[in-house]
Design brief:
This protein is α/β, with parallel strands linked by helices. It contains ten helices and twelve strands. The protein has one domain: TIM Barrel (Alpha-Beta Barrel). A twelve-stranded mixed beta sheet has the order 7-8-9-6-5-4-3-2-1-10-11-12. The longest helix is centred in the first third of the chain and has 13 residues.
């Protein structure tokens, strides 16, 4: 199918949703061990031979772009751990048809790479930050240093990068921090997003905080959250403004209010597994196709079929499969 206005190909699923967004993991490795992501002892990283090479990733992204993907979010693990990540982003941005390239980072290494990333024309960066309390931050991340992340946020703004903060509210841990995290958008033109905890992998034994309670905590401190009068972002988040705030507040209600009817994404793991849904078991082995010299059209057909099989909605159940899902391996 082609877009009537632009003539570009459009990728859709069987429910008519337009699929134009790829979350691309370039490594399963991370320099933190966050409570809701990894066990305290860490995990065994997959071998270098199993990870897609940058040239393989770029070839796949050219195929994705040719069939309708125009936005790519580079993720990990922590993407900046992988040597050559900045150069990869530069080459990714140059692919014909890719309009927007963004990155999700824990912020630890971000500051030392931000100037290069800006020169590489990275469009935006999402930074994970669940508390502004230094002791809580160290506990949650199992050893992270808060100062590095706060400095990276300031530098990103100086370089005119679009900045979003991702906060996961956790029951019994950071309820009191929610208004303080929201206040980061008061005098800065950034978006602070609160993401409901998804009961997958290490997080399956933890309790999150629902959208309604997050709203209550913010409004008690800052007044009424007003929906933005225009579309913002390329994902399932809902966005709001607060009186006197320079930035915005976002909420991703993955559990209490499904956003699946608006889902526009596929996920590619660092080892080449393409998934149409974060919580589902369906995947396609693109690494195998690449290394067995499949044609570009053959790979494109596999991607189209997988997109067509995208389920109507997620299945966040507390079952054995959901407990085995490793978010860091599939880019979150």
């Amino acid at each position: 199918m082609n877009d009537i206005k632009t003539g570009r190909k459009i990728l859709t699923d069987s429910f008519g949703r337009k699929i134009d967004y790829l979350r691309l993991s370039i490594t399963d490795r991370c320099n933190l061990r966050c409570l809701y992501c990894m066990p305290p002892e860490g995990v065994d990283s997959i071998s270098h031979n199993e990870i897609l090479r940058f040239e393989e990733l770029l070839k796949l992204c050219r195929i994705f772009a040719d069939i309708g993907i125009d936005t790519v979010r580079v993720t990990g693990g922590e993407p900046l751990i992988r040597k050559g990540a900045v150069d990869f982003i530069r080459e990714l941005k140059a692919i014909n048809g890719i309009k927007r390239v963004t990155m999700t980072s824990n912020g630890v290494l971000l500051g030392e790479h931000l100037k290069e990333l800006s020169r590489s024309e990275l469009d935006a960066v999402n930074i994970s930050l669940d508390t502004l309390d230094r002791e809580k931050f160290s506990f949650l991340t199992r050893g992270g240093t808060l100062g590095n992340i706060l400095s990276a946020i300031d530098l990103a703004l100086e370089l005119a990068l679009e900045v979003k903060i991702n906060c996961v509210p956790l029951r019994g841990f950071n309820e009191d921090d929610i208004p303080q995290i929201a206040s980061l958008a008061k005098n800065r033109k950034i978006t602070v997003r609160f993401i409901e905890l998804m009961p997958l992998g290490a997080a399956s034994s933890m309790k999150g905080i629902a959208e309604t309670e997050v709203f209550t905590l913010i409004e008690k401190k800052f007044g009424c959250l007003e929906p933005l009068p225009f579309n913002y972002g390329s994902g399932p988040a809902s966005y709001y403004t607060l009186d006197g705030f320079s930035g915005n507040i976002g909420i991703i209600s993955a559990v209490s209010r499904r956003f699946c009817e608006k889902c526009n994404r596929l996920r590619l793991s660092a080892s080449g597994a393409l998934k149409p849904c974060l919580s589902g078991s369906i995947s396609a082995d693109l690494r195998g196709l690449l290394r067995n010299n499949a044609s570009d059209e053959n790979i494109a057909d596999v991607i189209r079929k997988l997109a067509a099989d995208k389920p109507a909605g997620h299945n966040f159940n507390f079952n054995d499969y959901s407990k085995k899902i490793e978010m860091f391996r599939i880019g979150g």
